[in-house]
What we know:
Blueprint: H1 7-14, E1 18-20, E2 23-28, E3 33-38, E4 43-46, H2 51-64, E5 78-80, H3 92-112, E6 120-127, E7 135-140, E8 174-181, E9 184-191
Antiparallel strand pairs: 1-2, 2-3, 3-4, 5-7, 6-7, 6-9, 8-9
Keywords: Plasmid
Amino acid sequence: xxxxxxxxxxxxxxxxxxxxxxxxxxxxxxxxxxxxxxxxxxxxxxxxxxxxxxxxxxxxxxxxxxxxxxxxxxxxxxxxxxxxxxxxxxxxxxxxxxxxxxxxxxxxxxxxxxxxxxxxxxxxxxxxxxxxxxxxxxxxxxxxxxxxxxxxxxxxxxxxxxxxxxxxxxxxxxxxxxxxxxxxxxxxxxxxxxxxxxxxxxxxxx
Length: 206
């Protein structure tokens, strides 16, 4: 019978990493990034060729992701992840870049939704336990009987931001809330305006 896995090994298994002696290796996005993780030590990101190309592809995704904004369209907690491999879990720089990308994607959606005639909600979730769960959400009235609008039950809108989220965005543009449950904690960013006059983050920022 196999020994019970530690919590760290379970977390690594969730990201489909392959155990090899005392190290774990993961190749993500066509080997553009290489993570080298020592199970009993600190997590480090090893730079290799192609990292900047990965960033360009990330921002190209932000710029080219389109919504269906016809009046007949609807969204039932539709969400979009940009850090699919959870790279932000292993590098503060990667985390910040992906957070900026999610905020810019939200900005792009708000501009697209400016022609949408129906009520909608758009917000960003930054998960403090798993960068791969960060996402931009779109929600509208829908035929699935899912309640609209989202009331954000249990969210504390009077909260302080952790260090990782400070100095990388304009806090005055958002209603910021904190949510905590048995699964972990997350921060909610709900834009105060329907769209921003200028994109907040550019490729040159990274």
